[in-house]
Design a protein that fits this description.
Elements (H helix, E strand, L loop, with lengths): L2 H36 L2 H7 L1 E4 L12 E4 L5 E6 L4 H6 L3 E5 L10 E4 L9 E4 L5 E4 L2 E3 L11 E8 L7 E3 L4 E3 L5 E4 L3 E3 L3 E4 L6 E4 L1 E9 L15 E5 L4 H6 E5 L10 E2 L3 E5 L4 E5 L10 E4 L5 E4 L13 E4 L4 E4 L11 E3 L5 E3 L17 E3 L8 E3 L7 E3 L5 E3 L13 E4 L7 E5 L18 E5 L7 E3 L11 E4 L5 E4 L16 E5 L4 E4 L12 E4 L5 E4 L21 E4 L14 E2 L2 E3 L3 E5 L6 E8 L2 E3 L7 E4 L1 E5 L2 E5 L10 E9 L8 E6 L3
Parallel strand pairs: 44-52
Antiparallel strand pairs: 1-42, 2-3, 2-47, 3-4, 4-5, 6-7, 7-20, 8-19, 9-16, 9-18, 10-13, 11-12, 11-17, 12-16, 14-15, 17-18, 20-21, 22-23, 23-24, 24-25, 26-27, 27-28, 28-31, 29-30, 32-33, 33-34, 34-35, 36-37, 37-38, 38-39, 40-41, 41-42, 43-45, 45-50, 46-48, 46-51, 49-50, 51-52
Length: 672
């Protein structure tokens, strides 16, 4: 073969190889070009930058909950991690990460976890402890896997002179038709309550009531019981005489329908110094998906959640950290994980966003302002209520109108826009209730803003997100912007719908600007929070499926990303605080030493996050008045505890270019 013919043949072979592998070659080149672009200094200065956190295998957990502690460490709570096998084995996990030791010894530490905190609620307490309440008592059973009919009953005790009665799991109940059911949890039934009427010899007795979930002892349809339109009385086996007459159960029908998750009553405080959970009094209700909101006096309003029988409870409770006890709060229905913010007039605002469970009817979940202090549980006529009455749901509640696309009010983000003094709340994205609803899109790019300082507040539409998403994270930054990132276009990332997006909302101009895109798509069980050094932590993602066709079960993504905002890439040296007060009383002034007083243009007090399911009602940024002195600055803390709930905060000094100092932790104490 001549040299020319050999060269032509060789060129043809190369051409064929190139043609076959062109997509891979092009993809490789594209990735390399992208890596080059995002690592350029000018790109970082205009878009920020993402990196991965290197987590050793033994410390990887399913990040369901996260909270920034006053020690600067991040508590990452998995509980069972939405893993039924872990739940059955009692394998519950919590990880503590120390950003100050990143890459060094002691960076990670596993924490003994006493119960399954999966889908609990949490809030910062005035002393810096984290209150965590609720979690998982029982995993859901999908309809296709239900083997026995089941349902909820209420065990009643009409005897005021009886001792508390303990009914163990497996206690048998007999329906009027002879069907037999067994309890699935331990319950304690207190005696009835006896009240003197003022008439000699006459008292009023109110039976005690304790809920419990039961299932048929018989498999399949043999255990189905149709109790419509009311309820039936179940006899508790093994009782005789007076005890049998006074102790019994009342319940509706028993069905083969899906059985929802059930919540636990347990509550703990996490001590960030001792780095351990401390048991406190149980709640009266079991809760799975509750929201905990700090009140001005340091107490905590706890609302909603699936109870011990898998029903959304409307029995709210208030925790007192001084006595470490609970007492009943005003009754009101909220969907699970409602975004409930404390306002500066000591009312609570429900943004309309929630995550998870509850009926989809809009009339049951309107956005509005709840004056919990004046909610007396006034009874009104209610079909199906006890005695035909029930507490008035709209008492002390003022609906806020104007929310665009109100039917897409689940799994969106809500933030109290900075500064908190403006009392404006923004909602971003969201989707329909449940997996999807006929005729509705699976997600929205909508944002909306309400100015709660106005006499008649109403939502107005804001600028759209770059993509329609549900599960968007939203994190307040020290420069008074909001970092919004991730999310998916469909339920739990179905159909490979995760969106690799990030953008920054600037309230001053009411607009978004593009930010560097993350490398990991995140949907259900995603969290983001601000770190004391100004970076943003992003973790958690729990896709339903692992492929676009929906044929492979999804896997929890345990990778953690860190976003470094543009203000840490602008070339300006960050200001620093070198000394200052660690504790300040509301309304007082405090000095902080800094060589950068002349460069500090704004001072912000930022409450650390406690976030789950992209719901974080803890984060807030308060504008502080300050004056410059020779050695630093003197700040004035607002005196309103409803604006600045007592607790530990991060103090940031911010330059005119928006460069924040590393945070200095300050303990804000209420007036004694």
């Amino acid at each position: 073969m001549s040299r020319l013919r050999k060269n032509l043949a060789g060129a043809a072979v190369v051409a064929v190889v190139l043609a076959v592998n062109l997509p891979a070659v092009t993809g490789f080149a594209s990735r390399k070009w992208h890596e080059y672009q995002i690592n350029r200094d000018d790109y970082k200065a205009t878009h920020g930058h993402w990196t991965f956190l290197d987590v050793p295998e033994e410390f990887k957990v399913n990040a369901i909950h996260a909270a920034l502690l006053r020690t600067g460490k991040v508590l990452i709570v998995a509980g069972s991690g939405n893993n039924a096998a872990n739940f059955a084995k009692g394998t519950f996990k919590t990880l503590l990460w120390d950003p100050a030791k990143q890459g060094g010894p002691g960076e990670f530490k596993m924490i003994d976890t006493p119960v399954d905190f999966f889908c609990a609620g949490h809030v910062m307490l005035p002393d810096g402890n984290l209150l965590i309440a609720g979690g998982t008592q029982r995993f859901e059973v999908l309809k296709a896997k239900v083997k026995r009919a089941a349902g909820a009953v209420t065990v009643k005790n009409e005897d005021p002179d009886a001792r508390p009665r303990h009914l163990h799991p497996g206690t048998l109940l007999t329906a009027p038709g002879g069907q037999v059911y067994r309890t699935l949890a331990h319950i304690t039934v207190p005696p009835a309550r006896k009240v003197e009427t003022g008439i000699p010899g006459r008292v009023r007795v109110t039976p005690s009531e304790t809920k419990v979930f039961v299932e048929s002892v018989a498999d399949g349809a043999a255990g189905v019981l149709d109790a419509r339109p009311g309820s039936v009385k179940y006899a508790i086996q093994g009782l005789r005489g007076r005890e049998k007459r006074n102790l019994y159960a009342i319940g509706g029908g028993m069905t083969m329908e899906k059985q929802d998750f059930q919540g636990i009553k347990d509550a703990y405080e996490f001590d960030p110094v001792a780095e351990r959970y401390i048991k406190v009094q149980d709640m009266a209700e079991g809760r799975w998906y509750p929201t905990l909101t700090a009140l001005p006096d340091g107490r905590v309003m706890t609302v909603s959640g699936l109870d011990t029988v898998g029903q959304v409870t409307r029995d709210n409770e208030i925790y007192n950290p001084r006595t470490k006890t609970w007492r009943p709060g005003p009754k009101r229905f909220f969907p699970t994980y409602p975004a409930l913010f404390l306002l500066q007039d000591d009312t609570l605002f429900f943004s309309g966003m929630s995550a998870g469970y509850g009926p989809g009817q809009l009339e049951l979940r309107p956005p509005g302002i709840w004056d919990y202090r004046h909610d007396s549980d006034h009874p009104v006529k209610t079909p199906g209520g006890i005695g035909g009455v029930a507490p008035d749901e709209m008492e002390a509640f003022t609906p806020v109108p104007g929310l665009p696309e109100p039917e897409l009010n689940e799994t969106g983000a809500s933030v109290l826009l900075p500064p908190a003094q403006d009392q404006r709340v923004m909602v971003m994205g969201g989707g329909p209730v449940g997996e999807r609803q006929p005729g509705l899109p699976n997600s929205t790019a909508r944002t909306a803003i309400v100015d709660l300082g106005r006499p008649d507040p109403r939502y107005v539409r804001g600028p759209d997100l770059s993509h329609p998403v549900r599960y968007p994270s939203a994190v307040l930054l020290p420069d008074d912007t909001v970092f919004s990132f991730n999310g998916s276009g469909d339920y739990r990332g179905r159909g490979a719908s995760d969106v690799l997006r990030a953008e920054v909302y600037d309230p001053a101009v009411n607009a978004f600007r593009e930010a560097a895109a993350p490398a990991v798509g995140r949907n259900y069980h995603a969290e983001g929070l601000l770190l004391p050094d100004g970076r943003v932590l992003s973790m958690g993602s729990d896709p339903l499926f692992g492929d676009e066709a929906g044929s492979i079960p999804g896997t929890f993504d345990q990778r953690i990303e860190l976003y470094t905002p543009t203000y840490l890439h602008n070339g300006e040296k960050a200001p620093v605080f070198t000394d200052g007060r660690q504790s300040v009383v509301l309304g007082r002034r405090a000095g902080f030493k800094t060589p950068d007083a002349e460069r500090i243009d704004q001072v912000r007090l930022m409450r650390p996050s406690a976030v789950t399911h992209v719901t974080d009602v803890e984060q807030r940024s308060i504008r502080l008045d300050f004056t410059r002195v020779n050695s630093g600055i003197i700040v004035t803390i607002p005196e309103n505890p409803a604006l600045v709930p007592p607790g530990w905060y991060m103090l940031f000094g911010v330059t005119k270019r928006g460069t924040p100092s590393p945070a200095r932790w300050v303990h804000i104490q209420g007036v004694r």
